[in-house]
Design goal:
By secondary structure, this protein is of the alpha+beta class. Helices cover about 35% and strands about 25% of the residues. α1 packs parallel to α7. It is globular, with a radius of gyration of 19 Å. The two termini are about 35 Å apart. About 35% of the residues are buried. The mean pLDDT is about 95.
Length: about 300
């Protein structure tokens, strides 16, 4: 099956280019075009095979959720001229990601299970099980690494290191809680639980903008609400829609992104199963049928759509 692994365009008014873990970003003075590729990363490592339709899923879910939250805070998005492209305001990103958790899952559970009771400066109560709901949502920021692993960091450390000034950080916290509350409501409307997610922010002038994607399977974890408590009471695994199943598959293959570990081979069946999960999440989160794009001439199409949007 075809997939969009990378782009490498050159545009007349282009000022810079950056290829991230899963996105290719083209800069144009005060605007940027973000191409959501089908690359997939886990444990901060780009996996060897691209996942068909993954970029389209992320781009379209993010666009819908940015539209649904623009009354809470300004966001960078101006248009989506292509299934894989978002164009918007160029901001200076804050060097931290605002991770917020409503449940003890994923990385937080792995830390808790290892004996830690303080995560990013936040105290966690004793006696919690994996996937338990936390007494209240907690913010556990991380640094943003261009290479290697993002690192947990506390509010105090962010302020002490001057990564974000206190006035701006208070705004980031306020936006993070409000966005998570809205995301929780939107998920509940679709029979889902928004377990945890991350938000990235940037600044242009004196205005703080929400940037990048929000409430997608790459940035968020969802549980199915139906049967959640019953599964917790029976100590059963939660039925979830997120990228965690990719991480669990990697762990089962002996890979967690640690030094000396080899990324496992991804068979066609593994790739297709991951693609199917992304489509399932799209339809569950949006309540809409997913329309698969045509991969024929995709590079030509994307370049044309970016050019026309930037010029208009």
């Amino acid at each position: 099956m075809k997939a969009l692994k990378s782009t490498n365009f050159e545009f007349p008014d282009q000022t810079n280019f950056y290829s991230g873990k899963v996105r290719d970003i083209y800069y144009f003075n005060d605007k940027m075009a973000m191409v959501a590729s089908d690359r997939i990363s886990a444990f901060d490592v780009i996996l060897p095979e691209a996942i068909p339709f993954k970029g389209q899923v992320l781009n379209q879910i993010a666009a819908k959720n940015l539209e649904a939250t623009k009354d809470i805070c300004p966001n960078w998005l101006e248009s989506t001229p292509d299934p894989n492209v978002a164009i918007g305001t160029l901001c200076k990103p804050f060097p931290v990601e605002m991770v917020i958790r409503g449940y003890l899952a994923g990385h937080a559970w792995r830390e808790y299970n290892s004996g830690k009771r303080v995560l990013c400066g936040v105290n966690l109560p004793e006696g919690l099980k994996e996937n338990d709901r936390l007494p209240q949502p907690i913010i556990t920021p991380s640094t943003k690494a261009h290479e290697g692993h993002d690192e947990d960091i506390s509010r105090d450390e962010i302020l002490q290191q001057g990564l974000v000034d206190e006035k701006d950080y208070e705004v980031l916290e306020e936006y993070t809680y409000a966005l998570f509350n809205r995301g929780t409501q939107l998920a509940a409307d679709k029979g889902l639980i928004l377990v945890d997610t991350k938000y990235e922010f940037g600044k242009k002038g004196d205005t703080i903008y929400l940037i990048d994607e929000i409430h997608t399977p790459d940035s968020s974890r969802y549980f199915y609400a139906d049967g959640y408590q019953e599964r917790q009471d029976k100590n059963e695994a939660q039925k979830q829609l997120s990228k965690e199943f990719v991480r669990q598959w990697l762990i089962s293959e002996g890979f967690q992104g640690l030094d000396g570990q080899q990324v496992p081979e991804m068979s066609e069946s593994v790739v297709n199963s991951i693609s199917d999960r992304y489509l399932e999440l799209y339809e569950k989160v949006t309540g809409e049928s997913f329309i698969k794009q045509d991969y024929n001439n995709i590079l030509k199409r994307i370049k044309k759509n970016i050019s026309e949007s930037i010029e208009s």
